[in-house]
């Protein structure tokens, strides 16, 4: 897959489940696993940092001023602004991520036919779970059907790493705040989490990683409608014909601010992305979203 600069207004940009960006990270990981990881004493050798304990995440979330939820019925002023520019201004930046690490950005490529088909299936799955738009959180990356703009950040990974840990975000501007709130509810249901897990399995299997995926709702910094949501996916995978055991963690944060749908994805191996760093990045992105919503 030949990489290219991220697209911001077409369906091939990294999607709601951070598909293209995640594939880039998983692809780099797969390459590393084929060599360096096989000689490492444990998969944890590639982990960025030990994960913070859940209690630390709660403290970090309480220490940040909680954004006031936007009433669902309130009209969002998308008509007076350029929705693509608005989404781009909100998205994750390298400066939002922990300064203790050196971050590099990379372009992402067009998803394969199998991944693209899985995107469409995920969107349909979430609609069946109660989503309010035709493409909840940009699942299939299609503009229209109430979706006005769909813009992703670059893929950020620690410099010198095999693509892990990694982070990226996506902002989708929709026509209805009520529909956006329904999208948020859908991804937090048991049925919605199954949609997400199925998508993640397709992403990783495209890079030679296969295994069962579990999902769980975890605490998150509270912003926007109903405080948002965080879904953690853990895949106990085996790599290729070597059957090398790998545990992948993907934490996805979902928020609705007015009619803006914001997703942040944090991918790591052996343990979750460092919680304090994820919390700080989420808070910065959502502060920009609140400013954009007015």
Number of helices: 7
**Number of domain units:** 1
**Percent in helix:** 25-40%
Question: Total strand count, please?
Answer: 9
Name the quaternary structure.
single chain
Order of helices and strands: HHHEHEEEHHEEEEEH
Mean pLDDT: 77
> What is the radius of gyration computed over CA atoms, rounded to a whole number of angstroms?
18 Å
Structural class, by secondary structure, is alpha+beta
Shape: globular
Would you identify the regions where 5 or more consecutive residues have pLDDT less than 50? 1-17, 36-80
How many angstroms does the end-to-end distance come to?
40 Å
Largest sheet: 9 strands, antiparallel
Portion in beta strands: 15-25%
Model description:
- By secondary structure, the protein is an alpha+beta fold.
- The protein has one domain (19-293).
- Helices cover 35% and strands 22% of the residues.
- The protein contains seven helices and nine strands; from the N terminus they run αααβαβββααβββββα.
- Strands 1, 2, 3, 4, 5, 6, 7, 8 and 9 form a nine-stranded antiparallel sheet that branches.
